[in-house]
Design a protein that fits this description.
The chain has about 130 residues and is α+β, with helices and mostly antiparallel strands. It is built from three helices and four strands, in the order ααββαββ. A hairpin with a 2-residue loop joins strand 3 and strand 4. The protein is globular.
Length: about 130
């Protein structure tokens, strides 16, 4: 009986020591969001494609506030891999939403208007509001 108790105690101790707190801190999640945003920018080709025709550009909502108002849009070249871009934006939005809820991040709830169009300024795409 002592052996069985010792074995059960040992196994319990091993499981207790192996279970660690894998939860991310707010800072770690924020860094992950920054990295994802950088990846989105790279996929969008906004910093690598020259804008000569506004019709070759589009924009997507990238974030909204905790109150549901639209907060940010990202430009993308229509030469970009749209499926990959949309998947990465969706992943970013999900993580950002979880981050805002989990860490009670305050956000600006003032509504913003969506862009009307895209224009080319000195070879760079720009949103027109």
């Amino acid at each position: 009986m002592k052996k069985l108790s010792f074995i059960l105690f040992s196994v319990s101790l091993i499981f207790a020591s192996c279970s660690s707190n894998d939860e991310e801190s707010a800072e770690e999640t924020s860094k992950r969001l920054d990295k994802m945003y950088t990846e989105i920018i790279a996929i969008s080709l906004v910093n690598t494609e020259t804008c000569t025709n506004p019709d070759e550009w589009g924009y997507e909502l990238i974030s909204s506030s905790a109150c549901g108002t639209n907060r940010g849009y990202i430009l993308y070249s229509k030469k970009a891999d749209k499926i990959k871009l949309d998947a990465k934006i969706k992943e970013y939005q999900k993580l950002r939403s979880e981050y805002v809820i989990k860490w009670n991040v305050l956000s600006d709830c003032a509504p913003t208007n969506p862009p009307n169009s895209v224009k080319c300024v000195d070879g760079k795409a720009s949103l027109v509001f």
